[in-house]
Amino acid sequence: MTDAEIKAFSTDGVVCLRGAFGPEWIESLTRGLDRSMADTSERRRTWDTDERGGTTIYDSQCWQHVPEYREFVERSPMAEIAGRLLEATAVNFFFDAVFVRSAGVRFRTPFHQDEPYWSVEGFDTCSAWMPLVPVAQESTLEFVRGSHRWNQRYRQQNFGALTGDGRDQVRYDAQDDLVPFPDVEGRRDDFDVIGWAMEPGDVAVFNARMIHGGSGNLAPDRDLRVFNTQWLGDDVRVALKSEGMDPDHTGVITAAGLAHGDRVGGDLYPELWRREPIPV
Question: Is the pTM for the entire model greater than 0.85?
């Protein structure tokens, strides 16, 4: 982790780390993804199905029963990468998510932010977007540079409208005090939109308040398989939100004895990296 990468993450809100993970991690996660797609969890959702039958599938929170995911979470360099980019004292794991798009799918994930959906709140958060197959520039995840530092709460996309599942409803439209979400797709020239063609082993790490979207427009011979992990730093606290959450961790958080305002922790959200104190 270079000083320039840490600075870029702080100022831009996102950094693409090339070759951060060797082929052994990609091969292991690919085996895990094949396993989890063959036996998806109750959290599996289909965001979109096109006229050819091509799909955009999402599943999450599978790391405790997919051994390849658990090994990556607990033993890969990702926790330290997150900690150093966040300049944190310690980092806790939050949850995993996978995104699988069929070859040729044109559906793009709407621009949004991550942290407003989560059952935690804080600036010191990051998501790690890690493709397991090559990603072309026109199909990549895109980011609005610097948007993580905009001091504004927006009315987010209700992804429940895409899945049609009542468990996914997040009713931001009920909050009249929120500003409408910026029309990034319709007014791209007004925003500093960035993204990268990526290879397996690369990872895009971004602050969870970054405005981001895309990763669609696949060529007919290209699918997309992404393993994503979320990490929490020093200022993050449990935040159970009246408008709803996606994914909604209320049940597991309360079962673990955590309450609104608590520091996350425990077996579900383990601390996996801590900065060594500077010798005196």
Answer: yes
